[in-house]
Amino acid sequence: MPAMSAPATAATAALPEPAAATAAEPAAGTIRLGYHGSPEVAHRVTALAGLPEATVTLHPYDITDPFRGLREGDLDLIIVKFSLREPDLAVSRVLTHDARAVVVGARHPLAARTSVSVEELADHDAFHRPGDLPAYVWDEVVPPRTPAGRPIRRRHRVTDIPRMMALVAEGAAVHLSLISLADVAPPTVRIVPVHDLPPAPVALAWHRATGLPPHAARYVTAAEQAASR
Question: Which residues form the signal peptide (predicted)?
Fold first, then answer.
């Protein structure tokens, strides 16, 4: 569902399985990294950082309140996509990108396509922003209008990926999203690339006042340096 440099090459990272977002005090040197949707981009960023000595635990965060884990001290870092303009959050340089795609039901007329235009999506119902996700971020995820000025019908309200996928599978809506969702999509939906929207920039964010423990700061620096090569 969610929102800068040239794409980095994807790599495979050996990370632990995602842990519960309510994890207690971390072990010394552990980086608590929040993500939403597929963990694939988090794996990619960790591979980019190239710090095998750092222990990274993945924690899925709630898209209806995406920054709560940072603000309450439960997470050190989160993966963010698109622009972020929260005064209390600091953001890294762009580390990689996530291509745009649309989630459609397996029997939807667009399901067999190799790619679609965002202009075509104005013919179908889409989704409102979930919960407290900033409106300016959602306007990048699901813009109110296409580049040609056609309104996108943001009609459905949804709070999590399983419910969104269920509505899409039923044919009630399509969801303009990101190609990484293919990793978590059920067989009842298809992920179709959108060829005329730019990919989403991917970065790391942390709570500005809290700052980062030294090992997490090294992780960010290493990822930024690798992305700039």
Answer: none
